Amino acid sequence: MKSLFxxxxxxxxxxxxxxxxxxxxxxxxxxxxxxxxxxxxFKNDDQKSAYALGASLGRYMENSLKEQEKxxxxxxxxxxxxxxxxxxxxxxxLSDQEIEQTLQAFEARVKGAAQTKxxxxxxxxxxxxxxxxxxxxxxxxxxxxxxxxxYKVEKEGTGDAPKDSDTVxxxxxxxxxxxxxxxxxxxxxxxxxxxxxxxxxxWTEGLKNIKKGGKIQLVIPPDLxxxxxxxPGIPANSTLVFEVELLDIKPAPKADAKTDAPADEKAAADxxx
Length: 273
Hints:
alpha+beta; disordered N terminus; Chitinase A, domain 3; 273 residues
């Protein structure tokens, strides 16, 4: 039976060869160009390809070690390299069973450390978010609703405010409280269109405070956004900051009175019988 380490190495190498979206791709592109003449360094394409796979795998491993260090787990790089060399030479100091058991225990450690960090980050995000909302609420023109939504109307707009069943068209920018931008329809060059009751509660509530042509700032607490779980790009318990411009409101189609009439007349006729 092949060792788990060999299988992992083979799978990673294949992923590189097949151009799979592994995390080291961006880092590879960011590295400075090699100073050595590649034509002189390699006798043929097979040598060059082998080196490229090894370099990519090495960078992937290096990045993995850095990520684990953020969790408080510091692996010995020398032993990592020794494990690779010994695996290729079929001289592993561990049996297949020992490798599997060790990696299973390591995976459990990583998961536990990651969960601990996530919990700590979520608690920190909650505290910082509350402080940010409290500060924003003191700004001139800012209001706080009964749900905890904090907002400031910059331009009211004209006409009627949107209802839950309406489709709205907006331009917006979304950031975390540290100013990190996670979404922006302006830079995409395309407004967003959606039914008002089909988005996070903070938007559904907040956009009812303006009308067509209006602009508003929304500071949305976690329970009106993505809560304790978060989503990619938005950590757990994040307070979200939006600048929203309401471009258009499209009311939901109304039922055709003529279509409903025959059924109403039939019901009335049945009632007389």
